[in-house]
């Protein structure tokens, strides 16, 4: 009788621990999903900023390639080309 009560108590504690671990796993999975979404958003933002930087540099590069003195504008001033900032 005593052995059966201890067994049931042990099984109950085991079940409670299992449920607590399942809750922790669910919480960690949600946190992981949230972090993955944030990382994706940051990567996208970084790529968008880089795209805008390149788009801003494009007219300067085009003007440089068309200038008669290769790298100088029509007034003889050096063009500033800054692809990477």
Identify the notable features of this structure and list them briefly.
85 residues; mainly alpha
Which percent band covers the strand fraction? under 5%
Mass-distribution shape: rod-shaped
**Computed CA radius of gyration, to the nearest angstrom:** 32 Å
Q: Helix amount, in percent?
A: over 70%
Outline the low-pLDDT stretches.
none
Helix tally equals 1
The structure class reads mainly alpha
Can you write the helix and strand succession as a string? Answer: H
Task: Tell me how many strands there are.
Answer: 0
Distance between the termini: 79 Å
Q: Please, what is the average pLDDT?
A: 83
Describe, in plain words, how this protein is organized in 3D.
The chain has one helix at residues 2-66. The protein is rod-shaped, with a radius of gyration of 32 Å. The protein is 76% helix and 0% strand. By secondary structure, it is mainly alpha-helical. The protein starts with a helix and ends in a 19-residue tail after the last helix. The model has no long low-confidence stretch (mean pLDDT 83).
């Amino acid at each position: 009788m005593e052995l059966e009560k201890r067994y049931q108590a042990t099984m109950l504690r085991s079940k409670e621990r299992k449920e607590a671990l399942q809750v922790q796993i669910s919480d960690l999975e949600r946190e992981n999903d949230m972090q993955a979404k944030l990382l994706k958003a940051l990567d996208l933002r970084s790529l968008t900023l880089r795209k805008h930087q390149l788009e801003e540099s494009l007219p300067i590069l085009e003007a440089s390639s068309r200038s008669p003195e290769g790298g100088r504008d029509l007034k003889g001033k050096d063009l500033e080309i800054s692809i990477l900032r």
